[in-house]
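Internal tracking record. Fields below are filled automatically when a chain is submitted to the structure queue. Please do not edit lines marked as system-generated. If the sequence contains nonstandard residues, flag them in the REMARKS field before resubmitting.
Queue: standard
Priority: normal
Entity type: single polypeptide chain
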Amino acid sequence: MKDKFSEELVQLAEKDLLMREKLLAINKLSDGYHPEMEKLHKENAQRLKEIIKEIGFPTISKVGEKASDAAWLIVQHSIAEPEFMKSSYKLMLENSADVNLKHLAFLFDRIQFFQGKPQKFGTQLNSDGTIYPVINKNEINGLRKKNHLPELTQEKIDSILPIESIEFIENQNADYIIWRKKVGWKK
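SYSTEM-GENERATED OUTPUT FOLLOWS
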């Protein structure tokens, strides 16, 4: 039997995706973190925190796969709340047998990306669409396979910039640096 929060989690994620589509349609998604999107992400994160207090992380066995995936989406998009993202990752890791492994990979990489650290699975992209630097290019496809992600072509792997380029990538957008400091990703 599904948990009482299943439907609500799916609805929260759907609101998020609808807002994204709306902002994309009026070309307002690529100019930094849109205030409407940020507000919705914070509201969704707050509600998910309340649900987590009551039932723990909404795993597949607790709420069903669709609602567990929705909970991950809410966490993945709560970029203005670093501590919530990190604590949710830990909860998902503790319950790794009961969550979608590809979501764990995406969340790990997203946290690394916002901290300005190399990712593991190659799920996060630079603003130019290339893959953000990874810890180990030679292990990337093995890690992706273990976490149910499609393998990358050798051409894609070869195009990943080295870890040393992170500082250069990070310093290309002053507003982004200011925002990350403001919300707590950077000191």
